């Protein structure tokens, strides 16, 4: 089956292509270069639906959209839906992560808990709509490390790594990240819904 991926973020496209190839090779993911709707929702789900509806309407294909971000406990879940623009209007990943590190500069390790969240909307051209979520728990590092991935990856240290060997997602290979990321978890949660396409 063919499915359109409603994102203009090249990193997300790359990650979805890899996740789909590894877990659902029967699906063909088509990229979307149509109009970009205004993302004025206040939740990940609302924004994911806005993007998926626009792409489904424009292409006539089932559409997937991911709205995602980093949620820091001690900031009450921020940056959250504002992750892409945390340091201003430009989508400058380095400025965003620098600001977040500054905001946490007085916070000691046990209180640096954070999670990456990916919310995926699946919208059928007939109007069927579904929303699923994937969460990747961890904590914020005190300095950026690694060149891999995008956005906040260099300052996010996922849980579950043996003590003394902990790395940021910026230090993960794409294969490592795409096996366990918030995006991979959300995509896996779509499973049965994709079977019907
Ligand atoms: P589209 O709306 O076109 O999909 P976008 O980059 O604007 O692209 P979002 O509105 O969902 O997407 O913003 C997500 C932001 O959250 C993204 O720009 C990063 O700053 C951050 N983010 C999301 N997933 C991430 C990941 O896997 N690693 C690092 N940062 C991530």
TrEMBL record:
SUPFAM superfamilies: ITPase-like. Belongs to the HAM1 NTPase family. Its cofactor is Mg(2+). Mg(2+) binds at residue 67. The keyword Zinc-finger does not apply. Homodimer. The gene is rdgB. Signal peptide: none annotated. It catalyses: ITP + H2O = IMP + diphosphate + H(+); XTP + H2O = XMP + diphosphate + H(+); dITP + H2O = dIMP + diphosphate + H(+). It comes from the Bacteria. It comes from Microbacterium marmarense. NCBIfam families: RdgB/HAM1 family non-canonical purine NTP pyrophosphatase (TIGR00042). Keywords: Hydrolase, Magnesium, Metal-binding, Nucleotide metabolism, Nucleotide-binding. Its EC number is 3.6.1.66. Binds 1 Mg(2+) ion per subunit. It holds the Pfam family Ham1p_like. Substrate binds at residues 7-12, 68, 150-153, 177, 182-183. This is dITP/XTP pyrophosphatase. Pyrophosphatase that catalyzes the hydrolysis of nucleoside triphosphates to their monophosphate derivatives, with a high preference for the non-canonical purine nucleotides XTP (xanthosine triphosphate), dITP (deoxyinosine triphosphate) and ITP. Seems to function as a house-cleaning enzyme that removes non-canonical purine nucleotides from the nucleotide pool, thus preventing their incorporation into DNA/RNA and avoiding chromosomal lesions. It is an enzyme of class 3 (hydrolase). Gene3D superfamilies: 3.90.950.10.
